[in-house]
Amino acid sequence: ALHAVSAALLTGDSRPISETAWWIADVLRARDVDPAAVAELARLLAAELDQFPLARELVAQHFVVESS
Fold first, then answer.
1. Is the pLDDT of residue 68 over 60?
2. CA nearest neighbour of 21 among 10, 32, 5
């Protein structure tokens, strides 16, 4: 997830963040893990990025997986 954030910051393209969120959600779904784990990961990641407001905002905006 951190690599996706750094890629987004380097390129100005937020797709790596949302694509990583979707990939993680797919892996967890395949392993019968509660999908809320993705939201919890996003919350924890944003909390760790508290000294980096742009990165934190990218996570808040793009590390989401819509319910299907």
1. no
2. 5
- Give the Cα separation of 41 and 43 in Å (integer): 5
Separation between Cα atoms, residue 18 and residue 31, nearest integer Å: 20
Mean pLDDT of 8-29: 95
Rg of the chain's alpha carbons, rounded to an integer?
Answer: 12
Could you write out the DSSP letters of every residue in the chain?
A: -HHHHHHHHHHS--HHHHHHHHHHHHHHHHTT--THHHHHHHHHHHHHTTT-HHHHHHHHHHS-----
Q: What is the dihedral of CA 28, 22, 54, 7, to 10 degrees?
A: 100
Give the predicted TM-score (pTM) of the model: 0.84
Q: How many CB atoms lie within 10 A of CB 43?
A: 13
